[in-house]
Model the fold of this input.
Amino acid sequence: MKILVTGGAGFIGSNFINYWLSKHVEDNVINLDKLTYAANPNYVWHEHFKGRYTLVQGDITDSNLVEQLVNDSDCIVNFAAESHVDNSIGMPGQFISSNYVGTFTLLEAARKSDVRFHQISTDEVFGSLPIDSAELFNENTSYHPNNPYSASKAGADLLVRSYVNTYGLNATISNCSNNFGPNQHAEKLIPKTIVLASKNQKIPLYGNGLQIRDWIYVEDHCRAIEKVLLNGKKGESYLVSARNEQRNIDVVKMILSLMNKDYSLIDFVKDRPGHDVRYAIDPTKIETELGWKPKYNFSNALEITVKHYMHFLISP
Ligand SMILES: NC(=O)c1ccc[n+]([C@@H]2O[C@H](COP(=O)([O-])OP(=O)(O)OC[C@H]3O[C@@H](n4cnc5c(N)ncnc54)[C@H](O)[C@@H]3O)[C@@H](O)[C@H]2O)c1
Done:
C-alpha cells in the first residue's frame, strides 16, 4: 500500500509513520507536511526507511499539490492540523485554514480519485463533561465544541461525514483522547512539565489543576488507527481511549516524583478562557468491533516518556 500521510512530521503523525513502516515492510509512505513550528523532519526515522519514505514540504490547502499526491496514493491519513488550543484562541484563522479548509481540500482530491480517506480527530469535538459525573463520550454523543481548535476539528469531521453520505467516499474517522509520548512539542502539558522541571523552573498549571483528561500512550493510538484503516467500516467513527482519566495536577505530580523534583515547582496560573473541565471516552466500539485494546499502562508509559525527553535534553 502507498499511504499519503499528512502532518507526519508532527507528534502523532511521526509516531504513526515509524510504527507503520516498521511493521508493514512492503508499504510506502509519502508525508505531506507544511513543517510548521510543531514539526521536526527528523522525528521520522527516514534513514531507516530509505526508498519507502518521501517527505514533501507543502500545505494541505494547496489543491494542485494535494491532487497530484492523492492520485498516486491508495489511502490518505490526515493528521495535519494546528493542534494547540491556546494558539487557536490567539490566531483562529490559521486553525480554520489548516484544519477545516485543509480537510476539505483533501476530501475533494479523495473524491475525484476515489481514494480511501481516514480523518484523525479528537475527543474535544464533544465539548466538556461535568467533572463529578461518570458520563463518557461515545459514538452517539453529539458534537459540542467550545473553542476555535475543537470547532475547526468538529467542522472537518462533519465534512468527512457529508462526503461519505453525498459522494459515497470510503472514509472513516477516529476521535482519540489526549496522547503522550515521544516527539510531542514542548508547549503541551507532559513535555512542558518535563522540560521545565529539568531546569528547576516553575511549571504553570491552569486554574486549580483539577481538569480531567483521558491519557493514552501514542503507540496505542497508532495501533488503533491501524485497526481502523485495515478493518474499519466505511462511514463509521471510532472513539479511542485507554480508559485512563487523570487530573492535570496528578499528572504533573507523577512526573515530578519520577524526576525527584519538589511539588513547589507547580505554579497555579489564571485559567484558560472557556477551559473544558473533563474529557472521557468509552472505547467499547473499537474494542469489540475491531479487537483493539491498549498495551501500555499509564505509569510505565509515563516513565518511558520522561526518560525519552531527559535523554534528548541531556544529549539533543
Ligand atoms: N495530540 C493529541 O493529544 C491529539 C489527540 C487527539 C487527536 N489529535 C489530532 O491528531 C492530529 C495530530 O496531532 P499532533 O498532536 O501530532 O499535532 P502536531 O501539532 O504535533 O503536528 C501537526 C503537524 O501538522 C503539520 N501541519 C499543520 N498545518 C498543516 C498544513 N496546513 N499543511 C500540511 N501540514 C500541516 C505540522 O507541520 C505538524 O507537523 C491532529 O489532527 C490533532 O487534532 C491530537
User: Anything to note?
Assistant: The pocket of nicotinamide-adenine-dinucleotide is lined by residues 6-7, 9-13, 32-36, 38-39, 59-61, 79-83, 98, 102, 120, 122, 153, 176, 178-179, 185 (CB under 6 Å).
